[in-house]
Amino acid sequence: MSRPVLVPGPDHPITVTPHPGRVVVRAGGRALVDTERALELREASYPPVLYLPREDADLTALQPSDTRTYCPYKGDASYFSIPTADGLLVDAVWSYEQPYDAVPAIAGHLAFYPDRVEISAG
Question: What percent of the chain has pLDDT over 90?
């Protein structure tokens, strides 16, 4: 069964732009990402999402998950959990390893659920 591949347009716009300033992500008191190279993805009426370069992340703090989701605009997402002293933050991070042509800039980037980690964006 093939999955739909949709192209952003006036009814479902998607933009990816550089985020001005520094972004720091922490979980369990540990800094996971510290970057000035974040991208901000705006999609339709959803809240903006920051995508952070893997090169600026402590990947040793992330545990790959078996969870996968699909977005017809962005492609297949893979997930990571974050072990902390207080427990496992399950599927707190996602990434589009091979995003669709509409959003190539987010390849090699991570996004974090803001209700599961602390995100400071300046």
Answer: 97
